[in-house]
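Issue: ligand-bound run for glycine - logging full I/O for the record.

Environment: standard queue, default settings, no custom constraints.

Inputs:
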Amino acid sequence: MNVLVLGSGGREHALSWKIAQSSQIDKLFIAPGNAGTNQTGTNVDIPVDDFDAIKKFCLDEKIDYVVVGPEKPLVDGIADFFAQDPDIRHIAVIGPNKKAAQLEGSKNFSKEFMKKYNIPTAKYQAFTAENLEEGYAFLDKMKPPYVLKADGLAAGKGVLILDDLNEAKNELRKMLEEEKFGDASSTVVIEEFLDGIELSVFVITDGQSYKILPEAKDYKRIGEGDTGLNTGGMGAVSPVPFADTGFMDKVENQVIIPTIKGLKNEGIDYRGFIFFGLINVKKDPYVIEYNCRLGDPETEVVIPRLKSDILELFEGVATRTLSERDVVFDDRTATCVMMVSGGYPGQYEKEKNINGLNGIFDSIIFHAGTKQDGPTYVTAGGRVLCVTSYGKNQEKALEKTYENLEKIEFEKAYYRKDIGFDLVE
Ligand code: AMP
Ligand code: GLY
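Outputs:
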């Protein structure tokens, strides 16, 4: 099998690391990749949104599977682009088509979907500039904190949670009338605030059946104790101790099964990963958001816990035979901690030499924002790399991760020292 992975983060390094271990892999390429993915296969310098260049590469290299990491090409219709072209129709895209990707691409679409199929989620209403006054009236009726969500993709920045009513009204106006998030906020969803602890649950589906992957919890804030600005994610833990059998049964019966059935009922052929962003409110799961892809950094702990051959699962998705495939997981805990450039998620410097990577054998280093400069690795992004370790429990896994993080250095490196702090029992 020849496989092309699209993306350049830690998620894509974890995916390519796993694909490279498959007995079925012949050639593995990553576009555009990072310095880590290039150790698992071959990086190719094609941006993820250049569909024509991707097509040409797939034909030249006789690619069998295109595995899509980030949401943007999915929401832009890369799966449809392949399905509609007789030259490349035979290539399986692991990732949903444009309509299906609306689960992530439009908050309003996903909220309507959840309402229609009785999937537990926060109460909400959607507004546009035409009914701004009704939006104000809706806010008047709600209790703080107020949750405002731009309908479209806004690079993870489109959600505002505000305590003050006037500020909420002002922000609503800015989103709708001043296009604070561009087109993405021409519709805004206002919803009830849910108080609880978040977790991420992933399934892979062929449109008929599904397999649940290990759940994970990520840490989005830059500062310890979950303080400060939101980031792409600073670390992750899997499994999540509070996601016990009772809770996961509710997730499957109240969230996953109705979602898969609902998609089928809508005539949406969803093939790929579904990421359920959940919140545990007094032991009941509520959906905060859907994503049409795997999470980052969750993938860096979820994929290492997958023992089965990932290409067999992809084959199951492509040929709609997922129900016949086995998925086996590693019982151990996996934890990862992200090492980031000082200043991230604000301004930061790049091109810093990274030292100490060679002496680490009992953790996995997944690269995110790195590139190779001759024999040395240098930083090339905000989230630079993460260190994933296994352990018989969270404490042991984190111990190893932190021990190895101390061996890695680059100028102005930063990482959170409290990943998993809220899960200790
Ligand atoms: P989203 O992009 O929808 O995942 O929202 C970003 C973050 O905002 C989530 O990860 C939550 O931490 C928070 N959030 C979103 N919606 C709610 C809600 N209804 N209640 C509480 N927190 C929320
Ligand atoms: N870690 C959250 C995300 O990938 O959206």
